[in-house]
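I can't quite decide. Please look over this sequence plus structure tokens:

:::
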Amino acid sequence: MTITLIAAAAENNALGKDNQMIWHLPDDFKRFKQLTSGHYIIMGRKTFDSLPGMLPNRTHVIITRQQDYTAENCIIANSLEEALKACPQDEEVFIIGGGEIYKQSLPFADKIELTRVHGTSPEADAFFPEIDLNKWELTEKVYHPKDEKHKFDFTFETFVKNTGENE
């Protein structure tokens, strides 16, 4: 299993506020859809609740502490470990949030697909964990300037976990 964290975070790692994303970036949504379609997506209950509905062509795995929680056509898990066990072991699985789930899953992750939104968001209440560049290597970087559809400059960044020892 390849575990990939996928997120959009500001330069101060801000993800969102009041269970909502802080920005609207259509190209980020397109990339998210392209990367996650056909895969299992793991998320916390609050992240699931914030979605506009079921994301098409993806299997939703929801982590919640609520023992009696149900969601139609979704897999419910009470821990990250349980969520990972519910996914195919020979496929790429995406962790899509929120902040606490990212933090828990970072040690298990193989890859991070991050949309780095240039600027900071001081009012955020959810944050992406700090990426330790001794453990992660930036392998791809694609910059997008702001335009009529995007109020912010942003960069698609791909990180892979270092497998060897750093000298």
Summary: The mean pLDDT is 95. The chain has one domain: 2-161. The radius of gyration is 16 Å.
